[in-house]
Amino acid sequence: MLNARRSSIFPVALATAFAAVTLLALVAFPSTGFAQDGSLPSSGPPTGSYNEDEAQGIDRMLMCPVCPAESIDQAQVELARQMQQKVRELLAEGYTRQEVLDYFEERYGPKVLAAPPKTGAHIWAWVLPIGSVLLGTGAGLVILRSMKRPSAARQTVQEQGDEDLQPYLEEVDRGLAFDDPATAAGSSPPPEEPNG
Amino acid sequence: MLVVAGMLALLCAIAVLHPFLRRDPPGDAETDSDNAAGYAELESMLDSIQTLQLEHQIGNIPEDTFREHLQTYRLEAASLLRRIDESRVPDPEQDLERQVLLARLASNGVNGTWLVCAGCGEQLMGHGEACPVCGQSQSTTARRTEGARRVEEGEGGEDPLAGLRREAGTTPLDDSEE
Amino acid sequence: MADLGAMCVWIALALASYGAVGSVLGKMRGSSELVVSAQRASHLTVLALTVATLSLVTLFINRDFEVAYVAAHSDIAMEDYFTWVAFYAGNEGSLLYIAFVLSIMAAVAVWRAPAATQETLPYTNGVLMVVLTFFLAVIGFMANPFDKLPFIPLDGEGINPLLTHFGMFFHPPALMAGLIAASIPLAFVLGSLVGGKTSDQWLDAARVWGIISWALLACGLLLGSWWAYTILGWGGYWFWDPVENAALMPWLGLTAFIHSVMVQKRRGMFRMWNIVLINVAFGLALYGMFMNRGGSVPSVHSFGESTLGWIFLLFLAVGVIVPFAVFFWRYNKLKSDRDLDSMLSREAAFLINNLLLLAIAFVTLWGTVYPLLSQLFIGEEITLARPFYDQMNGPIFLALIFLMGVGPLLPWRQATWAAVRRSLLVPSIAAVAVIVVLMTVGIWKPYALAGFALAAMVTTGVLQDWARGAGSTAKARGENYAAAFVHLVWGNRPRYGGYIVHLAVVMVALGVVGTSFFNIQRDVALAPGESVTVRDYEVRYLGTTEEFKGNRTEYLSRFEVHKNGEFAYLMEPGRHFYPSFNMASTRAAIHSTPVEDLYLVTSENMADGSVGVRILVNPLIWWMWVAGPVMVAGTLIALWPQPARIPVRAPSLLTVPGPRPQTTGPGPA
After folding, report:
1. Cα(A11)–Cα(C432) distance, rounded to whole angstroms?
2. Is C106 part of any domain?
3. Exposed, middle or buried by CB within 10 Å (0-12, 13-18, 19+), for C620?
4. Domain assignment present for C483
């Protein structure tokens, strides 16, 4: 067991150490990418002003129509590259994210979207799993609560005074190697020597 | 290639059919799986107690809860142990073997000394036989009279003799007197 | 050689089906000869399948193109060591691999079965042999890797270039082994239930094999991510592909199972729940194999078209219905008599963890089957891909990590608020400290903040527990802290092994949060001599060399990286173009540090010598790959067997039959 003094110093020390490590990591590597600043290079084929991060976000929301289960950001085919190009052109023309997505949906059908909009018939794609998960979790918790016995009905240890149990108790203690008096003391009065 | 395949098939067939051809029934001592399950449960109870102690030491469990739970676990484990012992009723086949062994014991006059199987710690009566419990040949079995005496007198100790400790009340002599 | 292999498959099929029928019949009729004989037959499948496997390997090494499978998955130019990969490059070979692994695991599981399961072991063996029979029948009748072509082609088609990667040596075998290993805990559970042993007899065996299956799947998933990261050429590692999901779901189910089974072990509760969990996990594993080998959904993993779909679907249905039927058959005998002491306890935490894991599995399953459902009900195919999973599963994962921080601090049975507050003090301080520090440097993304804070919380919680435990052990044993810590871990292996795995999960979480929220990606085209600056990296393109290597052209581009104006290192991403596949496989150049990876991958080599290149800065992803070995170490510690503390007593020969007057003996006289 920890004594009072150590247990009071300990958490503070550990927390300080942890904060210090995090801080040190950030100080030692000031340039690390933990802040996506605006100083982005304006390289890349398409011209015109658009936000490259926004473009990449849109890339990830569009599926490549000709490759299996890959977004145009991942796919390594020509069509995907052309679509990426188109995304940037549209953005440069002032399209919003939603307008770009609509543009592609119109041309390739709803299958091109990586996730359907949360409207209309598509709402079920989102609502149903959320509903089932909430329902399931709720039911699980209710069942768990019902497994809880009323604290008044705590099982009292009936076998307490059972003389016959004594040799078995000793064997259990032997199995646990309760040689440490400190721990054994917490268990019960030291077993009496039964008069065999 | 087909020859190799044929030989392989033949080999498999022989191995699979072999149990039917043997005169003696296959020597797998029928272990009592309920008994074993009881021991498994006992071990996990001991684990629980160990964890309880650990969490108490770490400081996740206050003293009074610790004592209460420890006592419950210990009593549960002890009653389980007792239940295991009480359910160990020998089957009729073993009773027959016991009669045979007792008869042989009487004729050999090995009174008061035990052989202990090195494989499972079971006490043995006969000579030159395999251990009836675990099948270990007795040639590898050490004469453990001294250990048996110590157990009888309650000095106890080594794990392999725990089986004997339980039987300390029923030495061969006691048994024949009954 | 092909004939020998084919014969061995048939021999194995005969042995396995005899093993299945013989075990069950022998047990039901009480014929121990039949049981032993069936057991032998089951073990002998290992021999037959070893010979079959070796035959296929030999065929590959000899490039025996008369065999259709060899012709389809190798060519003369292939290096011999890729035989390992080519073996499971198609359906036929991977089914043979699955059958081979299953036969070995079944033999080991039956041989090392704990005593408590001995009595119902024939049923367990029967279940395993039924599964093996299914795979062998599919191999024999529908997808035989030893089938011959009517002619002998001059050269094979060659191995799929995406598979010629180091990660492919371990990712598919680990995943397939993990998926099939899920049948072993199920077999123990089913065997015990069918045999009428409705208590905890199956517990230890199912736990151990559940953990083995879980660890294999985890390794497979991590290796697969690593493979995707280094070869797929877009710089990510996970994209909720249907087949990835199919491997993730059984892993989630098994994660729930190996936690919840501890509640049964320690407290005798949740027995039915655990049976349901392992049934679900097995069903999901079968579904995983169906997705992988049946190929009904488009995926990057559809390496071979197949007609196996319907038969796998049928087996999937059987594999889900039968275990649940057995469960309901024994339902009334399964009730456990233990009650929950308190909602604030380890037991309750485990149940919530189970619910969250199943929630993720359900959402993932939903996303995987939704295209089919929408086709059926709405009439148009709708995709649910990455944005869907990120939005739905992200929060649940965060909740799980939170629970991972709190759960281990709760003792079994009942915790007191005071003790919980005390244990949570340090982790909470650490979490808050991390949030404050990150916000002061300008990071305000809520998900990222939550992720890092929770990672800090779990880590400090675990470390605090270790420190306290080591402290008290050191005091009790009079040792120094290091020795005390070793003793502590060794004395409580399942607990501390589990904590080590938790730390590995935190590492993975760090990688996920780092790359999801802080990565930088640039796609540029560079002519030799040109350079581009991505944050503080200046990447200068030097040139590309070309080399013909039999079946492919290898492009190797050289880049010079300057960091903060100083020359740092050279990077050489490669691109291998395979004319016969009209397909290129990329070899990303990755400069990896614990802080961040600089990742270069070329996408196109143009005629004028310029190159299309994707440059990524991926923070913290290093931790994800390090997590693998840590997790394996933790699993091994948790699984290392513990010796019995109370010796098992054999039934005595010298006791009097009938009630035993046995009360005086054991104690000191």
Report:
1. 13
2. yes
3. buried
4. no
Count other Cβ atoms within 10 Å, centred on residue C379.
8
B69 interfaces chain C, CB cutoff of 8 Å: yes
What pLDDT is recorded for position C165? 79
Q: Which of C526, C616, C225, C248 is nearest to A73 (CA)?
A: C616
C70 contacts C127 by C-beta, under 8 angstroms:
no
pLDDT tens digits, C294-335: 554 545 555 445 567 778 888 999 999 999 999 999 998 888
Amino acid at A141: L
Helix, strand, coil fractions of chain A, as percent rounded to 5: 60, 5, 40
CA–CA distance, C189 with C275 (Å, rounded to integer): 7
State yes or no: ipTM above 0.85: no
Confidence of residue B55 (pLDDT cuts 50, 70, 90): confident
Task: Decide: A111 and C345 in contact? Cβ < 8 Å.
Answer: no
Handedness of CA A50, A51, A56, A61 (dihedral sign): negative
Q: B151: which 2 tokens?
A: 């157990």
**Cα–Cα dist C458/C431, whole Å:** 9
Q: What is the pLDDT of residue B56?
A: 87
- Dump strand ranges (E) for C404-551: 520-526, 531-534, 537-549
* pLDDT for residue C160: 81
C15·B12 Cβ contact <8 A = yes
pLDDT of residue C68: 93
Has residue B154 got a pLDDT over 80?
A: no
**Interface contact C668-A193, CB threshold 8 A:** yes
* Long-range contacts at A139-145 (CB < 8 A, ≥ 24 apart): A140/C351, A140/C352, A140/C354, A140/C355, A141/C352, A141/C355, A144/C340, A144/C343, A144/C348, A144/C351, A145/C343
Confidence band of A124 (pLDDT split at 50, 70, 90): confident
Residue of B nearest to A1 (CA): B57
User: Which residues are CB-neighbours of C382 under 8 A, at least 6 positions away?
Assistant: A110, A111, A113, A116, A122, A125, C370, C371, C374
A126: in domain: yes
Residue length, chain C? Answer: 669
Can you spell out the DSSP letters for A6-53?
HHHHHHHHHHHHHHHHHHHHHHHSTTSTTS--S-----SS--S---HH
C300 Cβ partners below 8 Å, 6+ apart? A68, A69, A70, C232, C241, C243
C588, part of any domain: no
> In total, how many domains does chain C have?
1
Q: Do C653 and B90 touch (CB under 8 A)?
A: yes
Q: For residue B132, give Cα distances in angstroms to B2, B120, B167.
A: 45, 10, 17
Chain B residues touching residue C200 (CB < 8 angstroms): 37, 40-41
What CATH code is carried by the domain that includes residue A117? 1.10.8.640
Domain count across chain A: 1
Residues in chain A with CB shorter than 8 Å from the CB of B63 are: 186
Establish if C107 belongs to a structural domain.
yes
User: Which among B60, B101, B121 has the least Cβ separation from residue C411?
Assistant: B60
Q: Which domain holds residue A75?
A: 44-135
Chain-chain contact of B8 with C7 (C-beta, under 8 angstroms): yes
Range of the domain at C99: 1-164
- CA-nearest residue of chain C to A113? C383
